[in-house]
Design goal:
Blueprint lengths: L2 H27 L14 H27 L26 H17 L2 H30 L1 H9 L19
Amino acid sequence: MSIFKHILSIILLPTVMTVVVPAAILYRTGTANVGWSLPAPLNLAPSSCGIVLIVLGLTLVAGTIFLFATVGRGTLAPWAPPERLVVRGIYRHVRNPMISGVLFILCGEALLIGSISLLGWFGTFFLINLIYIPLLEEPGLEERFGQSYRVYKRNVPRWIPRIKPWDAPGAASS
């Protein structure tokens, strides 16, 4: 898999969702209220929480991109998907850490910048994925990976991480 395909998928997917769309929303609405008009020192709380969420989200996104490239031998993009089912690292706890990472980033941006409009984008993005993942993505994964994905799906939750990592039958865990 070429580095160009990885970079292109990162630019076109998480970067557009977490940078381009929020920038366009802020440009169009002009809704920024850092500190949410709270009195000092309470005005530091939303920004601090926002930074923590953004760092957590970036960590998840970077980790999933790495696992897709090294274990799955593909990208996060639908036009160059992983060739192998990834059931390592964070994927042993939750099935959609990439989307969770993007959601953490979006929520963090809204808190950091103080924008109700960005909270609306966070909600819209979440709603789109609530519909898209079970209706389109998961059936496609079942078709591509068969029984191994169905077993994984039964054992690892879509959104809320399981505490104890799941060990795939016959797979070395990491």
